[in-house]
Design goal:
CATH superfamily of the largest domain in chain A: PurM-like C-terminal domain
Largest sheet of chain A: 7 strands, mixed
Structural class of chain A: alpha+beta
CATH architecture of the largest domain in chain A: Alpha-Beta Complex
Strand order of the largest sheet of chain A: 8-10-7-11-9-12-13
Oligomer: homodimer
């Protein structure tokens, strides 16, 4: 059956009350949250001695998601997960989030409650409190904005700027699964690839990415020098790290961790998906060779594979470059660049 | 002359670089900001012993502002000011903000630089750092989202929930000026009221509200018991404080501080503007009678008038009520309620 009411039927203040109730009690309060939803501002006491890590990210309908591809609960999970992923990349512990919903007014209450269930589930899994937010009218498209706060661990964080020549370049998990999942979603539902046994796993990688919080903590502890999360694809994000660190890189295409399902379903496109697909939300990092074995072992302990995919080399000159060792052993410089929402 | 380029001409990453440069250097870095714009997240070290106060607010084109009524620099000022106002209401010190711009792509670069100049000017005035943010495509309307972080003072904050029977109800400044300014903006430019000598002052109150940061600090120090900022109008906001505190109130219409210009230009509507106009961004607060003289004196020291407008009374029963003493001395219960963007 379900509740067929829409936002404009119950109004802003009715909706705020319902959404608050849709969150688990421990997510609404949180042990370090002194004051949650309902006042002019929320109040949070960070752990003494720790720094506060701040990130913000948005998902806009038709730009970042499509309702015919995602259910509302997954959308709620993803909107918080992509913010947590940024905190994970700093080696930080997620703590508090505030949420702004931009709504047209014709959204179904049941759908927004499902969104909040997804959000609340991820918040709970990572020990975060939802401290409130804002609901505004958005004339054309649903828009979801989150600001997430985390804490440093032992006062330290990882940045993009620490990579040094001689470092090994590593990634967690595999690359290209999310982009492959998105391609599968775009296929007709009777396409044989869509019906492959492995398709659901790739689609899940796209709809419900799992932020690498424990992996980020390991990187910080085990001596990684630089880290960032992969949201714009390896060839979009690695150059940002190289530029921030003032170095260049050599990548070995033969060592890129790409799931067998991605290679099998996209035999002509898997390398492109791995290099430029985006939205993997894996961690890209660098570490000196002597720290590498410790990182791999600790990652294995939490069930995460860390793969060496290349090496940091000195900056050749005026700009950072990425040299690729192709599957046939040949070498050439790769064009770099991230997806630009307003690309000229 | 100016720069006629638009967002889609220079792209997301070009815009991020330009906007960063439009901020004063001390706003980009900030003394307590360890890491600013450019990494996965920003890093900030709060003052040891202080709590973190978190608020978020959005302005959406055609809903919260109109380009034919505001210039871009004022819009930048206001978007940060309304967030600072929430921190001020908690008695907190503003520290860090992150900004998300939702853009169509056809915005002029020069306009966005003006927006950031306004933003940067207010940030600097209140000692805030801009720690980065996000730029996303917004299909139909320009949308501006800010999350602002502040700090408690001496570990304490003011909330809405502290009002007690017997407290004096006070407000800073005057009520209704912003709503009067908005009405003036809606008039034809040759309307005699629009051309009144005082019109510009009221329009400025609407376009560039000044958050009451120092006044909030005084309220905390001088023993106010509850505070909130007036964004939805006195009759929208006071009931929220009463409900949070479990009390009722008596207001004296004869004591409402309404600027002479508002009374003169809107002789039939000034009381309605003062009660329900909204966007005053003054502080509404309660204090025990013995704290009142100290508050008034300290406010006078910073050039802010604090006016007693009523009294907190015990909750009559199941729900909070507001009784009004009218200009003729008669008493009656007032309908309460805030503006609801999705009102049924």
């Amino acid at each position: 059956m379900g509740d067929e009411r829409r936002v404009r039927d119950i109004g802003e203040f009715g909706l705020i009350a319902l959404l608050g109730e849709a969150l688990p009690a421990d997510v609404r309060s949180g042990e370090s949250l002194d004051l949650g939803i309902g006042d002019d501002a929320a109040v949070w006491t960070p752990t003494p001695g720790e720094r506060v890590v701040i990130t913000t990210d948005s998902l806009v309908e038709e730009i970042h998601f499509r309702h015919d591809w995602t259910d509302w609960e997954s959308l709620g999970e993803k909107m918080l997960a992509v913010n947590i992923s940024d905190l994970a990349a700093m080696g930080a512990a997620p703590k508090v989030a505030v949420i702004t919903l931009g709504l047209r007014g014709d959204e179904r209450i049941d759908d927004l409650l499902a969104l909040y269930r997804g959000l609340g589930g991820v918040a709970r899994r990572y020990g975060m409190a939802i401290a409130g937010g804002d609901i505004v009218r958005s004339p054309a498209a649903l828009a979801l904005h989150i600001t997430a706060l985390g804490e440093s661990r032992g006062g330290r964080v990882l940045t993009r700027a620490g990579a040094r020549a001689g470092d090994i370049i590593g990634v967690t998990g595999t690359l290209g699964a999310s982009a492959a999942g998105m391609r599968l979603l775009a296929l007709a539902s009777d396409d044989p690839r869509r019906r492959a046994a492995t398709a659901d796993l790739l689609i899940a990688a796209h709809l419900r990415p799992e932020p690498r919080v424990a992996a980020g903590a390991i990187l910080l502890k085990e001596g990684a020098r630089a880290a960032m999360d992969l949201s714009d694809g390896l060839m979009g994000d690695l150059p940002k790290m190289l530029a921030a660190s003032g170095v260049s890189a050599t990548l070995d295409a033969r060592r890129l961790p790409v799931a067998a399902a991605v290679r099998a379903l996209f035999p002509d496109a898997w390398l492109e998906l791995a290099l430029r697909g985006g939205e993997d939300y894996e961690l890209l990092f660098t570490a000196p060779p002597d720290a590498w074995p410790g990182i791999v072992e600790a990652m294995a302990g939490i069930g995460v594979e860390a793969t060496a995919i290349g090496e940091i080399v000195p900056d050749a000159g005026r700009s950072t470059t990425v040299e690729m060792i192709e599957p046939d052993g040949s070498r050439h410089e790769l064009p770099v660049g991230a997806f630009d929402h307003f690309a000229p």
